[in-house]
Design a protein that fits this description.
The protein is an alpha+beta fold. Helices cover about 25% and strands about 35% of the residues. An eight-stranded mixed sheet has the order 1-2-3-4-5-6-8-7, sandwiched between helices. Strand 4 (about 75-85) and strand 5 form a beta hairpin. Helix 1 (about 30-35) packs across helix 3 (about 50-65).
Length: about 180
């Protein structure tokens, strides 16, 4: 499990400790809290979860067997996810989501930085990490830029999200880039 502490926006609050760990079945209620929020799932390919049973099934079928999907945690409570999609070779895609109440605190940026370091250590063949984000998802664009990713360009009408074909921005980070 990887940990990192960041200062919160409130100077009188203690630093927040962020961890990345594999999902557990006991995360179902926490997963439902963020994956059941349409603000969070708006830009994701998967549908908004509605029940604890759906959350359990998602963890069993999608999270646990996934090659590299981690729960973003604070105090061991799942507040988001981060995943890489790596099919042997030199590149992998990275994606993430975070509970809306934690937006704007630097948590997603720190989680991406932690994940990049961990993924590049675990999979030394990866020389390129890439992320795709909806042109309207300015928050995610800022996370990627702050984590050291470079904007490469616009892919017009590239991704299908919730039945709509959307323009997408592609960002990349190379294993030789400074993180």
């Amino acid at each position: 499990m990887w940990t990192h502490s960041i200062s919160t926006m409130n100077p009188s609050s203690p630093p927040t400790t962020i961890t990345l760990r594999p999902f557990r079945l006991s995360d179902a209620n926490d997963l439902l809290q963020f994956a059941g929020d349409e603000q969070v799932t708006r830009f994701l390919r998967w549908e908004t979860l509605k029940t604890t049973d759906e959350a359990l099934t998602f963890i069993k079928d999608k999270c646990i067997p996934h090659r590299w999907r981690r729960s973003i945690c604070i105090d061991d409570r799942s507040i988001g996810f981060i995943s890489t999609f790596y099919e042997d070779g030199h590149k992998a895609d990275i994606g993430y989501g975070l509970a809306a109440k934690y937006w704007g605190r630097g948590i997603a940026t720190e989680a991406v930085k932690m994940a990049v370091k961990q993924v590049l250590m675990e999979f030394p063949d990866i020389v390129r990490l890439q992320a795709f984000t909806d042109v309207e998802n300015v928050g995610s664009q800022r996370v990627l830029e702050k984590a050291g990713f470079k904007l490469e360009g616009l892919l017009r009408k590239y991704t299908m999200i919730k039945g709509c074909v959307k323009d997408t921005l592609v960002f990349s980070l190379l294993s030789t880039d400074e993180i």
